[in-house]
């Protein structure tokens, strides 16, 4: 089927206003936040914006009949080229389909369509004293569908876990156009062990197995109070040691963030008014709960971290908490400041390692950066070993791009060597598919057979998650 005929048939199925084929408009869909998308231009043949399960199913049936690749897309905030059509074909833009179908407070759950923005859902839930806890930094942009497909999380995952823990059931359109309901989509039970856990199969499947068209989410009561401890360390090794000691004191903070020396310098260059103490590492512990438990946990963390830190501060006053948190809030933007002519590239940005290996990881990344002549800024969610690395280069300089690609490859391999993973939250997409065998060995064969069962023609988001059989 040629492109003109495809566009015509899609318009018949969906209506003219839900089919985008103008080359300028298609450019918008050629990137996400990844460095890979910046290096290449992957332009889809056509984009559609369906608003019903039946419309999605009809598009999938057409694609299957005509052997056309389909890439689901939320807000396109991913860092892995996941929502970019690397093989062309149809992009299913689900972001306009943003209805909150039901907020069922008595049963502590909500039913949403995939395009609902995370922060907007939480704004609605707040009115009921509830929240959906996973909290990606992209909260104001990313969709719930994208979060489910990527099993997204954020700095509060250390206490509240990842998106998968809150998914009660899904409606999924399979590559052949069939529609299935998984888990508790019909039952509303918040606890169920009935049947094979297909919900978990689709959570984190990055659009390679089907299109998520409806999501039943569990919601939780929103804590009433919070507090923050900032602890400053002269010796990097003391930072993870302090984290362990806080856990051993019986406390599970809602967030534990690290800024290493490189991040501290970047923040102070970007915003001298923040004036972070010069040190090897700064930790920020956030605790939440009721007023009394927050007070107790905050004072106890202050006591425990005080054994190793050279400076500790504990705050519950909202203004002071915001000040303490400011350095962490701006670090992603600050990274590029370590080099006046540089840009931060999103690559190798999301490894996760065991807590006992965090200090070694940060030192090794520093050495790798020096080896390749690239400045790297490090920060992240130390509570669950998730290190965010920000290489800063001149992306227009091919030599620097080549060096950055080598550096990133070594960072990914370092994570696996140290008993960690190439991605703690952002996913695999096209940028980390090459590490599938290294990380999962023989399990990749099983992943491929699951993919083949659901998508025998290999049309759903090709080129993502793992290389096709025979490819390297
Ligand atoms: C500034 C910034 C901060 C970020 N912080 C975090 C963070 O703290 N934690 C974190 O986990 N991530 C973070 N991310 C990455 C990203 O925002 C998340 O992965 C997010 O969940 C992606 O949502 P999206 O709607 O943008 O999805 P997209 O980027 O559009 O898509 C992501 C993947 O999901 C698939 N997909 C999307 N919708 C569907 C659907 N309905 N059905 C099937 N597949 C689908 C796509 O094919 C693609 O593979 C950040 C990104 C940015 C730019």
What report would you give on this structure?
The chain is an alpha+beta fold and 472 residues long. The protein contains 16 helices and 19 strands. It has helices spanning 3-14, 23-28, 35-39, 53-66, 118-126, 144-150, 157-160, 198-202, 238-248, 261-270, 291-305, 318-334, 358-372, 398-417, 436-440, 443-454, and strands spanning 19-20, 46-48, 70-73, 90-93, 100-104, 109-112, 130-131, 167-173, 179-183, 211-218, 220-221, 225-233, 255-260, 281-289, 311-315, 343-344, 351-352, 375-381, 386-393. The strands form four sheets. Strands 12, 13, 14, 15, 16, 17, 18 and 19 form an eight-stranded antiparallel β-sheet that branches. A five-stranded antiparallel β-sheet has the order 5-6-10-8-9. Strand 5 and strand 6 (109-112) form a beta hairpin. Helix 10 (261-270) packs across helix 12 and helix 13 runs antiparallel to helix 14. The longest helix has 20 residues, at 398-417. It is globular, with a radius of gyration of 23 Å. The two termini are 30 Å apart. The model has no long low-confidence stretch (mean pLDDT 96). The protein binds flavin-adenine dinucleotide (FAD).
């Amino acid at each position: 089927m040629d492109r003109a005929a495809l566009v015509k048939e899609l318009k018949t199925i969906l209506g003219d206003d839900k089919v985008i084929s103008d080359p300028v408009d298609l450019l918008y869909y050629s990137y996400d936040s990844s460095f890979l998308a910046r290096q290449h231009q992957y332009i889809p043949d056509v984009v559609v914006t369906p608003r019903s399960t039946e419309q999605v199913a009809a598009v999938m049936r057409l694609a299957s009949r005509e052997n056309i690749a389909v890439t689901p897309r939320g807000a396109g905030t991913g860092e892995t080229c996941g929502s970019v059509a690397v093989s062309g074909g149809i992009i299913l833009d689900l972001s306009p389909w943003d209805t909150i179908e039901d907020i069922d407070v008595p049963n502590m759950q909500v039913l949403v369509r995939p395009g609902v923005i995370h922060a907007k859902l939480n704004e609605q839930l707040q009115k009921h004293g509830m929240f959906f806890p996973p909290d990606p930094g992209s909260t104001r942009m990313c969709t719930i569908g994208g979060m489910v497909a990527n099993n997204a999380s954020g700095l509060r995952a250390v206490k509240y876990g990842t998106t998968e823990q809150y998914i009660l059931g899904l409606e999924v359109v399979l590559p052949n156009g069939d529609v299935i309901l998984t888990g508790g989509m019909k039952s509303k039970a918040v606890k169920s062990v009935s049947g094979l856990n297909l919900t978990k199969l689709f959570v984190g499947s990055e659009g390679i197995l089907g299109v998520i068209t409806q999501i039943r989410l569990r919601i939780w009561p929103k804590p009433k109070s919070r507090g923050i401890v900032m602890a400053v360390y002269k010796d990097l090794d003391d930072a993870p040691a302090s984290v362990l000691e806080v856990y051993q004191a019986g406390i599970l903070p809602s967030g534990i963030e690290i800024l290493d020396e490189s991040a501290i310098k970047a923040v102070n260059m970007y915003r001298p008014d923040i004036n972070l103490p010069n040190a090897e590492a700064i930790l920020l512990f956030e605790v939440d709960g009721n007023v009394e438990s927050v007070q107790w946990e905050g004072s106890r963390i202050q006591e425990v971290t005080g054994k190793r830190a050279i400076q500790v501060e504990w705050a519950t006053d909202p203004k002071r908490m915001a000040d303490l948190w400011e350095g962490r809030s701006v670090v992603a933007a600050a990274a590029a400041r370590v080099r006046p002519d540089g840009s931060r590239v999103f690559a190798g940005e999301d490894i996760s390692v065991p807590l006992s290996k965090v200090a070694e990881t940060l030192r090794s990344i520093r050495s790798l950066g020096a080896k390749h002549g690239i400045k790297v800024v490090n920060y992240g969610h130390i509570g669950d070993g998730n290190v965010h690395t920000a290489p800063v280069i001149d992306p227009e300089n091919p030599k620097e791009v080549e060096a950055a690609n080598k550096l990133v490859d070594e960072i990914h391999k370092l994570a696996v060597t140290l008993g960690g993973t190439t991605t703690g939250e952002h996913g695999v997409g096209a940028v980390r598919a090459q590490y599938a065998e290294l990380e999962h060995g023989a399990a990749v064969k099983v992943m491929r057979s699951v993919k083949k069962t659901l998508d025998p023609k290999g049309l759903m988001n090709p080129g993502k998650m793992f290389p096709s059989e025979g490819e390297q």
